[in-house]
Amino acid sequence: MALKNISTVTELRSSLTVEASTIVLFMAAILSFASPSYFSSPSRKYPKPPLRIPLFTSLPLPSSSPTSSPGLASLFPVRNETTLSSSSTPIQALTEEAVDSSALASSSKLVLVVGGTGGVGQLVVASLLKRNIKSRLLLRDLEKATRLFGKQDEDSLQVVKGDTRNAEDLDPSIFEGVTHVICCTGTTAFPSKRWSGENTPDKVDWEGVKNLISALPSSVKRVVLVSSVGVTKSNELPWSIMNLFGVLKYKKMGEDFLRESGLPFTIIRPGRLTDGPYTSYDLNTLLKATAGERRAVVIGQGDKLVGEVSRLVVAEACIQALDIEFTQGKAYEINSVKGDGPGSDPQKWRELFKVAESK
């Protein structure tokens, strides 16, 4: 009888997986091809400023990630920000992007970037370097930093070894002098080879975030955590499918722990990620990456947005949030749509975040 029950459970689980896969593919098609205006409020468009210094010039970028598979994990806005590809794919030239000259000024910040070799994190690091903002990279594998960012002066980029999944790995010396933190860690929503070595949602999105927040000194001025849309709706379709293995639940637990920590924070919840990940590219290539036509930015609150967002937009939002005082203690959802966007203009980003609060 026991063997029969086990067999029945196995068959039911297999059936559920097949049905869930079908529903996921259906919902992904809706999310990918529906008009952005159907899901979100109209974006604010800006004329190009007269004086801008080119930063992101035309660049051939991969049309898709060489490590991505057509499976469930690639269809939803939960990131795998911990893998490093060793190959590249066919490329296409995209449009020019620029950065305001004010963004290139040196800074007294020391920004700790966690998950800095992943799809969003590497763009954060590259942008901080271009802005002359000193950063410290917390990594499990130090060689990844060298392959991505080359040899950097310690006055620009420091690399320290540590694993947020292991609290004992987070020596207090790692956080000495840190003024700001950007956490971009993540893994796949569904079981994959990327889960090997305890790289599962409970370990990365919950225990890792909890350990990191617990280890941070109270002197930190801002913690920016990259999470996901849908974390407050994990029991509703389509999010309940995405949450079959708990990824949204664990991300929400990480958010809540940060809220209750007493540290000043901002939470960025991206939609389905596009553009990249460029995890086989070097620093010079990263600095030329563009968001193509999807440069206009839509920011919301209340976990209402559904759509896509460029990884470059997410990285820029993280950096901008460090200095926008009224974003402290709040969570924002973010999408990107066709049109001209704010680039790296601080005032335009302030307006976008402010508009989100007035909706």
From TrEMBL:
Q: Which Gene3D superfamilies match?
A: NAD(P)-binding Rossmann-like Domain (3.40.50.720)
Q: Where is the signal peptide?
A: none
Alphabetical keyword list: Membrane, Transmembrane, Transmembrane helix
Q: Where is the NAD(P)-binding domain?
A: 115-323
Task: Give the matching SUPFAM superfamilies.
Answer: NAD(P)-binding Rossmann-fold domains
**Which CDD domains does the record match to this protein?**
SDR_a5 (cd05243)
Q: Which parts pass through the membrane?
A: 20-39
* Name the record gives this protein: NAD(P)-binding domain-containing protein
Q: Which organism is it from?
A: Microthlaspi erraticum
Top-down, what is the taxonomic lineage of the species of origin?
Answer: Eukaryota, Viridiplantae, Streptophyta, Embryophyta, Tracheophyta
